[in-house]
Design goal:
Shape of chain B: globular
Low-confidence stretches of chain A: none
CATH architecture of chain B: Sandwich
Strand content of chain B: over 45%
Largest interface: A-B, 23 and 27 residues
Structural class of chain A: mainly beta
Radius of gyration of chain A: 13 Å
CATH architecture of chain A: Sandwich
Oligomer: heterodimer
Number of domains of chain A: 1
Order of helices and strands of chain B: EEEEEEEEEE
Helix content of chain A: under 10%
CATH topology of chain B: Immunoglobulin-like
Number of helices of chain B: 0
Mean pLDDT of chain B: 90
CATH class of chain A: Mainly Beta
Number of domains of chain B: 1
Shape of chain A: globular
Distance between the termini of chain A: 38 Å
Mean pLDDT of chain A: 90
Order of helices and strands of chain A: EEEEEEEEE
Number of strands of chain A: 9
Number of helices of chain A: 0
Radius of gyration of chain B: 13 Å
Strand content of chain A: over 45%
Largest sheet of chain B: 6 strands, mixed
Number of strands of chain B: 10
CATH superfamily of chain A: Immunoglobulins
Strand order of the largest sheet of chain A: 1-9-8-3-4
Chain lengths: ~110, ~120
């Protein structure tokens, strides 16, 4: 299973764009990259998923370089309610389970 | 249902007792996962069910832990002779078979406290 490395914590201010980068050097050919968000006392919630290049949805963008050894989650104009732990995962295809790392604690300050 | 549900939401038990935690996945989802999350920690994979295949039990921490999935739907995670270190939030997730990628939908979790 591909291991991921991401910063333990990040601080930002309301209205700013936040970029969280995840390293996954041994990503496999059939692995997808998925990001989840988790608020205290709740289960993780799917944010975005991609395989290569750029993916955008109503919540975030995901940038994946050509070598796919890293990915960057971009949250535009964060608000206080975006304070949460963000997990980067790689897997998919025939993978039977995903490995959650420690995640990144994002704190948005007023 | 609209999402994954788990029961009970909270469970307090005494050391040495057995507990059962229930997960109702999204209707039609064939894959079901159990995870454990200790306070301030990431998620720890426990077990995975996919259709009628043999479950992947590689994450179960000891033989006191077991899980079953009846009729390909509801799943029960059983912890026998609970220990204080079993205290954690137990999360269940499900995924549809049509999804080639791994978009898992999580329930709210069961907070287990072993006294």
């Amino acid at each position: 299973l591909a291991k991921t490395t991401q910063p333990i914590s990040m601080d930002s201010y309301e209205g700013q764009e936040v970029n969280i980068t995840c390293s996954h050097n041994n990503i496999a050919t059939n692995d997808y990259i998925t990001w989840y968000q988790q608020f205290p006392s709740q289960g993780p919630r799917f944010i975005i998923q991609g395989y290569k290049t750029k993916v955008t949805n109503e919540v975030a963008s995901l940038f994946i370089p050509a070598d796919r050894k890293s990915s960057t989650l971009s949250l535009p104009r964060v608000s206080l309610s975006d304070t949460a732990v963000y997990y980067c995962l790689v897997g998919g295809g025939s993978a039977r389970q995903l490995t959650f790392g420690s995640g990144t604690q994002l704190t948005v300050l007023p | 249902g609209a999402g994954v549900s788990q029961s009970p939401s909270n469970k307090v038990t005494e050391k040495g007792k057995d507990v059962e935690l229930r997960c109702d996945p999204i209707s039609g989802h064939t894959a079901l996962y159990w995870y454990r999350q200790s306070l301030g920690q990431g998620l720890e994979f426990l077990i995975y069910f996919q259709g009628n295949s043999a479950p992947d039990k590689s994450g179960l921490p000891s033989d006191r832990f077991s899980a079953e999935r009846t009729g390909g739907s509801v799943s029960t995670l059983t912890i026998q002779r609970t220990q204080q270190e079993d205290s954690a939030v137990y999360l269940c997730a499900s995924r549809g078979v049509a999804a080639l990628t791994d978009t898992q939908y999580f329930g709210p979790g069961t907070r287990l406290t072993v006294l």
